[in-house]
Amino acid sequence: MIMDTDGLAQKLDQELDEFVNSLEKTPYTGGWTEENWEEDIEQHPFFMSKPVDPSTELPAAIEGLRQLKWDEDMTPEERVQNYREEGNEFFARKKYRDAVTAYTDGLRQKCPDKATNATLYSNRAAAHFRLGNYRSSLKDCVAARKMQSEHMKAILKGAECLIALEMPQEAIQWCETGLWIDGKHPKLLELRKTAEKRRSELQRENRVKEQRKRKEQQDEDLIRDALKLRNIQVPDEIVRLPTGDHLHLDSNGVLLWPVVLLYPESGQSDLLQAVVETESLKTQIDHVLAEPPPWDEHKRYRPDRVNVFYEDDEDVPLDPTRSIKELFAGKKVLGGVVKVLVVPKK
């Protein structure tokens, strides 16, 4: 009997088509959309543009790849050991970020052995320290000591972190804890000496700062007394400009004012750093505008062709022949900085 292979093939094709057509038609909803494709592709290990934050949950695709590295029949302890060894290899190759990730994976296994977890925390602290993440490193040292209070490696690294964070007194306390365990530990003795030296330096720096602060307060009190005598008000704090200039007294008790000349029509300004209170504004303006400024293309700003006004009252012209002491008697000077508008005459 000869089999009709062509007919059989046609029959099978027809049955397959009927089966496919009978399947329920449901739209696929798991794909990327215009709104989420950038976010979703960033979760894919082949397309990630930045390293994974070890403190957050790993994307499913990366977690799946990582789990493929280890035999599914491994015990949690064996997995932890493998992650620790992997972290140590990364650390030895100075790949500290990868080391942090490996130690973090080990901690995620939630091994019940406290000594193992203390080692993982301590190792991760060392990797964080190499990355300059001193606070994260210190946090891991604290966690390691919660697992094992006398974990020497964690104590040493914690003391180093505290020194790096400018906390020498706390570093000394950590060193003392370690020396209580091993009174002759050379590294701890060296760290304590470093911390004590830095503590002395910070104490000296703080004393200098306090002295400077007291001197500045005394100077400001003298300035306030001088302003009161001249009936000039500086109601707010005396401002120190970015250039370091500020209202101050000279050795003869004369006020020296920072003066800002504003040219509103040109969007320019000039800073006069220390104008003697008895000098007139005209003297200063004559000096500044003796030569036309480079931005004054039309030569409009000449000493005899400008008017001067208070910054906060453009309707009140100033008499530039009078001194600052005379002009601002009975008025407020915000921040102790004199600001006047210089406008070309019409």
Please give a structural write-up:
- The chain has 346 residues and is α+β, with helices and mostly antiparallel strands.
- 51% of the residues lie in helices and 11% in strands.
- It has 12 helices and 6 strands.
- Strands 1, 2, 3, 4, 5 and 6 form a 6-stranded mixed beta sheet that branches.
- α5 runs antiparallel to α6, α6 packs antiparallel against α7 and α6 (114-130) runs parallel beside α8 (152-164).
- The longest helix has 45 residues, at 186-230.
- It is flat.
- The protein starts with a helix and ends with a strand.
- The mean pLDDT is 86.
What attributes does this structure have?
flat; six-stranded mixed β-sheet; alpha+beta; 12 helices
Please provide a brief summary of the model.
The protein is an alpha+beta fold.
Topology:
Blueprint: H1 5-22, H2 37-42, H3 60-68, H4 76-92, H5 96-108, H6 114-130, H7 134-147, H8 152-164, H9 168-181, H10 186-230, E1 248-249, E2 255-263, E3 268-276, H11 281-288, E4 306-310, E5 313-317, H12 324-327, E6 338-344
Parallel strand pairs: 2-6
Antiparallel strand pairs: 1-2, 2-3, 4-5, 4-6
Helix pairs in contact: 4-5, 4-6, 5-6, 6-7, 6-8, 7-8, 8-9, 8-10, 9-10
Write down how many β-strands occur, each being a DSSP E stretch of 2 or more residues: 6
Distance between the termini: 119 Å
- Structural class by secondary-structure content: alpha+beta
Gyration radius over CA: 38 Å
SS summary, helix count: 12
Low-confidence stretches at least 5 residues in length (pLDDT < 50)? none
How does the major sheet shape up? 6 strands, mixed
Beta-strand proportion: 5-15%
Q: Give the proportion of residues in helices.
A: 40-55%
Mean pLDDT value? 86
Q: Which series of helices and strands comes N to C?
A: HHHHHHHHHHEEEHEEHE
- The gross shape turns out to be flat
